[in-house]
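Task: fold both queries, return tokens.
Query 1:
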Amino acid sequence: METRPSPWAAGIQLRCPQCGRGEVFAGYLKFRDHCRVCGADFKAADAGDGPAVFVILIVGAIVAPLLIILQFGLDLPGWLALTITMVTAVALCLALLPPFKATLFALQWKHKAREATSDDVE
């Protein structure tokens, strides 16, 4: 019996939460329909807005102090400090969004989370 990979490892590596080998994305943030290795069906994959919220909070916690350090600590002109900070924020958001989206999807996969329906109410 094959064991499933850790959802954290599968997410960070952008791999299938079922087998840990196939890629989970067909494009930058578009989920594949299924895993090429094990055939797991990803059609219901939806991480919602969670990944974006986490990324925004983390990036904000990094770039806010960076702006203060650049502008007041290094005494850079405001336009230069803001430009460096904005470029850093965009780069971090673009870099962090895929692993966060894949990790949240892998956690949903592991816990068999799905959208609630009226059939779930007793």
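Query 1 returned. Query 2:
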Amino acid sequence: MQATKFKMMNNNVKTAQFRLQQHREMGQFSKLSIIDVANLLDMINTAESYSKPSTQPTIFQSIGFN
């Protein structure tokens, strides 16, 4: 199940990156609105933040093994 979710997220990110690249190339003739571009950038940034391991300790790590 996790692998499927990861593949779907990876596919969505690749699609978003492709659409943004097309938007850059087309310039003012692109059909994407500023809201569409912002949503695509948010999707990419969110996926990147999920892929990075968290460096802050979680509540279970801060409780300790006393």
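Both queries returned. Flag for query 2: The helical segments are 2-26, 34-51, 59-63.
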